[in-house]
UniProtKB/TrEMBL annotation:
Signal peptide: none annotated. It comes from Flavobacterium cupreum. It is found in: Endomembrane system. This is Fatty acid hydroxylase family protein. The chain crosses the membrane at residues 12-31, 59-81, 102-120, 183-201. The lineage of its organism: Bacteria, Pseudomonadati, Bacteroidota, Flavobacteriia, Flavobacteriales. InterPro entries: Fatty_acid_hydroxylase, Sterol_desaturase/TMEM195. Residues 137-286 form the Fatty acid hydroxylase domain. Keywords: Lipid metabolism, Membrane, Oxidoreductase, Transmembrane, Transmembrane helix. GO terms for molecular function: glyceryl-ether monooxygenase activity; iron ion binding. One of its GO terms (cellular component) is membrane. One of its GO terms (biological process) is membrane lipid metabolic process.
Length: 355
């Protein structure tokens, strides 16, 4: 079994390297076919996108926060949280929403303005010749495929899972929990630094467009408002639904990832890892598309741990007995040995199986 898993991991990583290379090869061929003459640059947007640049810049600076707050207010007004946003849930969601706004800017600024100029001093704006479309697809693939692996490994490696379980502890879906993460998981977001590096190399404008588009997709996938349901309901929209649910993350596919149970044919917490693009799950065989929504979310073993334990573990540990975040607890099995022998489906989620 371990050999099969190792072979699958090796195959998936090999495919990933090929995917990473595709935009690079496309840009190289474009450069060769134009005999080294670049007719457009990422510095100058294509004419049909020029009108959108100011809007994207405003969305990047404050628009996304406003969008989250407005959508969250709509969710609350519609009663879509079922009165579960109370106590520790409210604390952890608010702190995880505000803290990255304070933590990440200085970290990224130091990385972009100090670390990169020191590490690669002669490469600033070295990719400024790349056309906008090339930079866009280069960053879209590099950023999101890297996050797919970052996310997948945090589910499949038990030690890493502890830094991601906070995101899955919420017993609901919506804007309130979209930013819910342990601070280490957030600070070490691998794709953030990759995109910052590509921006330093001269792809800042494509990075802006990718970031905004990706943010809307990922926030929409976490929302408790199932905007994709009409695509499944009306037959005339089924062809669009078929493409859409395989290309990007939708509420149905991502809600399944947050289900508190598997084996019911809907919940799929050991897959559906895609953030902006769901196509990674299709390529690597980790996706499940049912067009259905789970009946409940979170983890069956959730102890409603203190906000500081969920956000700042392992610096602060939980005082809740039986918590995976408590002092001295190495792992929390899905079931006891006796239960495992006659384990009925569904299997309840706590700790992921190791790769």
């Amino acid at each position: 079994m371990a050999i099969v898993q190792k072979e699958k991991l090796t195959r998936d990583l090999s495919i990933s390297l090929l995917i990473y290379s595709l935009p690079v090869v496309a840009i190289f061929l474009y450069f060769k076919l134009t005999n080294g003459l670049v007719s457009e640059s990422h510095i100058t947007l294509p004419a049909f996108l020029e009108f959108a640049q100011p809007a994207f810049q405003h969305i990047r600076t404050w628009g996304l926060i406003v969008f989250m707050l407005v959508l969250g207010a709509i969710e609350f007004a519609a009663g879509l949280y079922d009165d579960e946003w109370t106590g520790e849930e409210r604390k952890i969601d608010i702190i995880c929403f505000l803290a990255p706004k304070l933590l990440l800017p200085p970290v990224i600024a130091f990385f972009s303005l100090t670390a990169l100029p020191y590490l690669i001093p002669n490469l600033a704006n070295s990719l400024s010749w790349v056309p906008f479309w090339g930079g866009f697809f280069l960053i879209a693939i590099a950023d999101d495929l890297t996050q797919y692996w970052y996310h997948r490994l945090h589910h499949q490696v038990p030690f890493l899972w502890r830094f991601h379980r906070t995101h899955h502890s919420a017993p609901y879906m919506g804007m309130a929990m979209a930013s819910r993460q342990n601070f280490i998981y957030t600070v070490f977001f691998s794709q953030i630094y990759l995109t910052a590096t590509l921006t330093y190399l001269g792809l800042g404008l494509p990075a802006l467009f990718v970031l905004v588009i990706k943010s809307f997709i990922t926030l929409g996938a976490h929302s408790s408002i199932a905007w994709d349901k009409p695509f499944y309901k009306y037959k005339v929209l089924h062809p669009i639904a078929w493409v859409l649910e395989r290309l990007i993350s939708t509420p149905a596919t991502h809600h399944a990832h947050h289900a508190d149970t598997s084996g019911d044919g809907v919940g799929h917490f050991k897959g559906n890892f895609g953030n902006m693009f769901f196509i990674w799950d299709i390529i690597f065989g980790t996706g499940l598309i049912t067009r259905k929504f789970p009946e409940s979310y979170g983890m069956k073993s959730y102890k409603q741990e203190e906000w500081y334990a969920q956000f700042l573990w392992p610096i602060f540990k939980s005082k809740k007995e039986g918590s995976a975040l408590a002092e001295g607890v190495l792992s929390v099995p899905l079931k006891t040995k006796a239960e495992t022998v006659a384990a009925p489906t569904p299997v309840y989620y706590d700790e992921p199986a190791q790769v």
